[in-house]
Amino acid sequence: MAKNITPREKDYSQWYIDIVKEAQLAEHSPVRGSMVIKPNGYSLWENMRDALDKMFKETGHQNAYFPLFIPKSFLSKEAKHVEGFAKECAVVTHSRLINTEDGVGVDPSSKLEEELIVRPTSETIIWDTYRGWIQSHRDLPILINQWANVVRWEMRTRLFLRTMEFLWQEGHTAHATREEAIEETEKMLEVYRVFAEEFMAMPVITGVKTESERFAGAENTYCIEALMQDGKALQAGTSHFLGQNFAKAFDVTFQDKDGGLKHVWATSWGVSTRLIGGLIMTHSDDDGLILPPKLAPTQIVMVPIFKNDEEKAKVMAYIDEVYAALKSQGLRVKVDDREQYKPGWKFAQHEVEGVPLRVAVGPRDVENGNAELARRDTKTKQVVTKDELIQIVKPLLDEIQQSLFNRAVEHRTNLTSVVSSYEEFKEVLDSKGGFIYAHWDGTPETEAKIKDETKATIRCIPLDNPHKETGFCMVTGKPSEQMVLFARAY
Known about the structure:
Layout: H1 12-22, E1 26-28, E2 35-37, H2 39-58, E3 62-63, E4 69-71, H3 72-75, H4 79-85, E5 90-94, E6 97-100, E7 103-106, E8 111-118, H5 123-133, E9 142-151, E10 165-175, H6 178-199, E11 205-208, E12 220-227, E13 233-243, H7 245-249, E14 253-255, E15 261-263, E16 265-272, H8 274-283, E17 300-304, H9 309-327, E18 333-335, H10 343-352, E19 357-361, H11 363-368, E20 370-375, E21 381-385, H12 386-414, E22 416-418, H13 422-431, E23 435-439, H14 444-454, E24 457-462, E25 471-472, E26 479-480, E27 483-487
Parallel strand pairs: 3-9, 17-18, 17-19, 22-23
Antiparallel strand pairs: 1-2, 4-8, 5-8, 6-7, 9-10, 10-16, 11-12, 11-24, 12-13, 13-16, 14-15, 19-20, 20-21, 23-27, 24-27, 25-26
Helix pairs in contact: 2-6
């Protein structure tokens, strides 16, 4: 156990904070609720971004960029949208500062004619733009993604999981038909599922949100839901079918093949730096971060061990040879040759930072043609020859990736329950938490009652529901079409 990391069993919330700090991922900024993402954390985000960006482009999407500031009047055009974000908006009212006796102040003469909103999401300004891009069915579909930052004035914040400003991507697409837009919504949900499971090694359940949990202004919201080690759920990504709501609000029409004028159909979808929080809480332990190899900024760290310049020369020549062989395989390898730190300190630091594999080489290893290979996930060590090391590292990283996913699936299975009564629901929720399948009568009143009394919410109505049988609501006893997925959540 790392000395600066609180054990999970003692205080899970503090454990999470300690991991973020000790693994050098992020820190609080001078602005309340905002964070500084440090190089370790940003490198991780870059790897996530690059993998997702490739997947987006393979599905026909292009990147663009839209303004940070949105005229206030834009948000009032779609009623549900403004209602959903009104309490989270940062508002720019003036454009200039002046010197005052106390330092600087706002110049009252610089008041804006119309206030500007710092984007909480970009639907409004993008759909105002699309109005100029779309005239004919030949202009459709428009498949655009934006990598950006957004601001939502959150009261309770936690690094990565919920911050006032965060990084994300937001896709915004326009289609000629309802069917095409729904197909796009579901396609991007599948992209998120594949990314979460194959890159993050984080199993997720895909499903549809209830009406009360939908994105503001959407006809339907699809989501991926993951389960963290403490039994709480994390909404890891969403894909929204917006119908024609924004097209009508911003008068975006096209002339169809028959010459008629129609409103377009829309989607939006996004994931954010919240995924880093999900990654931490899915895999890490009391010794620090554990990273899946596909996303780890450094997949292999090599640590030389020597006592004098003669040993150093031999060890470094040996390491350089192995390093070149591993780099040629496309692996992300780092040699930690800092002489101001002892090998034991380096071992501990790379363990905290979650590097999947560590290779240690000393003078005796050079003489014998060996190296010590250590796995971060299982903490197992083995001595291998130089040739074996070069051959087995790549398949071993694949094995670690799959092992982390399997371990997370097993954990989720152990924390998934099926209940038939409200009493049993509350007992399971308090005793072990996790995902709970239960019948619900489909009314927002019952959903609100459960949330108010237990702090649990309906995470989704699973698309591939293992409990589709009809039954009776655990609260009201009214008929229920199928079980839904409940959990307490971040």
